Amino acid sequence: MNFSSYLDRLRAVYDAYASALSLNPGATKAVMEAAETHLGFPISADVRQAWLLADGCESDGPVFMRPGYLTGYDFLSLEEAITQRSNMAKRAPRYAGFDEPASTDARIREGWFHEGWLPFAGFGGATLLLMADHSPGKLGTPGQIIAFTHDPDQITWVAPSFEALLMGSIIEIEGDPEEFLGLY
C-alpha cells in the first residue's frame, strides 16, 4: 500500500465520522533534498513520498496507528521530524548506565540514538515516536519502522517497511475508528 492509497482510506474513515483530516501541503523536492543533505542520507523512498504528498498534519489529527496499540500518532512535518531527531540525539547521553537496554532485538542497533533514525510520527510531545530506521541492526532492513516509547523507555521494532506499517495501521483504524479518532 502506498501513502496515497492509505490517505484515501483514512479520509473515508474521517468522513464517516464527520471529522476533518487536516494535512499540510506537501514538501517540495528542493526542501526534501535539503533535508537529505542535512541528514547525510537519502530518506527511504516511501517515507519521502509521504512527505511530498503531505508535510505532516495539524496537531491533534492522528494519521497513523501502531498495530497492536490504541494510540493514534500525528504525522510530523519534515521540520518537526528533524527537530525530534535532534532532541533524541541530545537526550541519548542521559541514558548512559540506564538499567534496561534500549533494545535486545537484533533488527535494531543497540543504543538510544543513531544518525539513521528519522521520526515521522509522534504522540504526546514525543513520548511516543515512530521512526524510519536507515541504520538497522545486523538482522534488520533499511527503512524498517521502529518506535521510541517513554515509560518504560524502550526502542522496539514495529514493521519491516513503511508500506507494512501502513497496512497494519489502516487495519487497526478501520477496525476501531472511534478509538482512533478519540470519539469514545
Automatic annotation (TrEMBL):
Residues 26-166 form the Knr4/Smi1-like domain. It holds the Pfam family SMI1_KNR4. InterPro entries: Knr4/Smi1-like_dom (IPR018958), Knr4/Smi1-like_sf (IPR037883), KNR4/SMI1_regulator (IPR051873). PANTHER family: CELL WALL ASSEMBLY REGULATOR SMI1. This is Knr4/Smi1-like domain-containing protein. It comes from Achromobacter arsenitoxydans SY8.
